[in-house]
Amino acid sequence: MTIAEVSKKYDLTADTIRYYEKIGLIPTVPRTEKGIRNFDEESCNWIEFIKCMRNAGMEIEILLEYVNLFKQGKTTVKARKRLLEEQREKLIEKQNNINATIERLDYKLELYDEIILGKRKDFTETI
Amino acid sequence: MTIAEVSKKYDLTADTIRYYEKIGLIPTVPRTEKGIRNFDEESCNWIEFIKCMRNAGMEIEILLEYVNLFKQGKTTVKARKRLLEEQREKLIEKQNNINATIERLDYKLELYDEIILGKRKDFTETI
DNA sequence: TATTGACTTAGAGCTAACTCTAAGTGATAT
DNA sequence: ATATCACTTAGAGTTAGCTCTAAGTCAATA
After folding, report:
1. What Å value separates CA B13 and C1' D9?
2. Phi/psi zone of residue A80: left (φ > 0), alpha (ψ -120 to 50 degrees), beta?
3. In CATH, which of 2.40.50.140, 3.20.20.10, 1.10.443.10, 1.10.1660.10 is domain B59-127?
4. Fewer CB within 10 Å, N- or C-terminus of chain A?
5. B125 pLDDT band (50/70/90 cuts)?
6. How much is the pLDDT for A120?
7. CATH of A1-55, one of 1.10.1660.10, 3.40.50.970, 3.40.50.720, 2.130.10.10
């Protein structure tokens, strides 16, 4: 697959994909004799994985650590597990923050509704 | 309350609080005769609100819009509601992304566990 | 044959959200 | 009296994560 095809498939710009490769996030992208990227299944899997993790807000530096551990082979399995567990914890915390904020917004939206419908005579501007 | 006290109370640096005020995120922070910030309850409520929204990842530009609508008074109640509804939708989407990623990590962590415990003879490196 | 279009590179530029620096004021402690 | 400390300002610097530019190669089409 060319970079244009991969770009379309995963909805990432070609620039972003090249950037990810340059910094080492996508190990060993194959090339044609002319030096043009020819993404195979493994490269695509990496891109899909990176995209998913980035969408959840995981930092590139952390992902780089994971990729580098991966490159070192079986001996790093435990370290990789530890890394993913840590990131899982961070995502849980993010989830909690977002949940709390959604609940707060729900409450505010209810108040706004009551104000709009005129159910609140004691209308005081709540932040 | 001085900026130092507010900084401690909400775990934000004084720099961040000054920055928020400068760009207009905290309307009307009172000052002493000497020109020193003297945060009242309303200012604190704004800071707490901004902090909560920022923690969930809401953009400063959006929060500025909200604050500006708020300043214009009752006539903007519907617009404010619309704005908060939009942001709620964005948070739901983020939540979904994070949930999907946590589930994916859970699956990977199980695989890693099986590998570590030697339950997998067919060990092939999964990304 | 000339040009169009997809690819290549190195490296500069951009945006959001802070974070820091320098220079200054004023109240309190030694 | 002098030094320390918390505050003030304007504006420069930083970081993450892209995004764009310029200059070039190569294959296919008018």
Report:
1. 17
2. alpha
3. 1.10.1660.10
4. C
5. low
6. 77
7. 1.10.1660.10
Mutation pick from B25, B50, B98, B111 vs chain A, by most beta carbons of A within 10 Å, is B98
- Are B88 and A106 a contacting pair at CB < 8 A? yes
Q: What are phi and psi of B93, to 5 degrees?
A: -65, -45
pLDDT, tens digit, for every residue of B77-119?
A: 999 999 999 999 999 999 999 999 999 999 999 999 999 998 8
Closest CA to B41 of B12, B70, B5: B5
CB–CB contact A104 B52 (8 Å): yes
- Residue B82: both structure tokens together: 């619309």
* Separation of A8 CA and C4 C1' (Å): 22
Contact B74 A42 (CB under 8 A): no
